[in-house]
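Please, structure for the following, as tokens.
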Amino acid sequence: MEAVPKHTTMAIKSYTNQAHMLVKNYLLADPFVPYTSILGGILACKVVYDLTDLFSCVYIKTYPSLTKFQRVDWNNRGISTTHAIFISAMSLYFVFWSDLFSDPQLSGLIVFRSSTLSTSGLGVSLGYFFSDLAMTLWQYPALGGMEYVIHHILSGIAVAYSMFTREAQLYTYMVLISEVTTPEIHLRWYLDTAGMKQSIAYLINGIIIFIGWLIARVLLFGYMFYHVFLHYDQVIKMHTFGFILVFGVPSALGILNMMWFGKIIKGLMKTIAKRRSPTKEVEGEH
């Protein structure tokens, strides 16, 4: 095996150092983190879309028989599910485990605390909201009605403001915990599309959606407003627009969540009633 020439080794080392400096001084430099993370989020959406399509073609038997639109919807839900898992994990970490917003010894008010990681996480999420909103408008209203458009616009504005100003990132992550229910919602659609609406998995998933929605999109929103009340002396020091967002966006999303929660309850009751009706028919024959 021939030794690598010294000048080649030096050239490789030089290029490596330049790449490292480029990433450190530009892509990951504090002023550029929001833009880099947004771009990363958009590119990640494209990659996940293609991987979902590839995986489904190989391993999902019913996928080839779906219409073109159903495939778009299927793959788009793959993006949404991946984002939900990512941002839910980030949100749970920052809200319940990280010292960034919980350690009283840290300097600065809670509403003004941030880090490179917390800012980049919001950027990736904003990249997803941009991508999903564009997809929803492109296929409107097939991928979702006006309530989905409103949800994404409000979420995008709140996330963008929190990311660029570094204000109220704690409350932004509290609201984003609600994304923990998204994978179950999409699984419900997948099971329905795959012809498994009568399966026990569909019923169990419906119960999990009900419990998860109650905790993450109803009770947790109440906890967020309670936290704002306890730290109102800090919240009042935010910029006026940020102050309005802290109260306005969660309130609007909370109303949407309650509307959807009503539909979830009706759907779950309907599923349970359908599973009980065959039993009643058999008992009647006897």
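Residues 97 and 137 are 37 Å apart (CA to CA). The chain has a mean pLDDT of 87.
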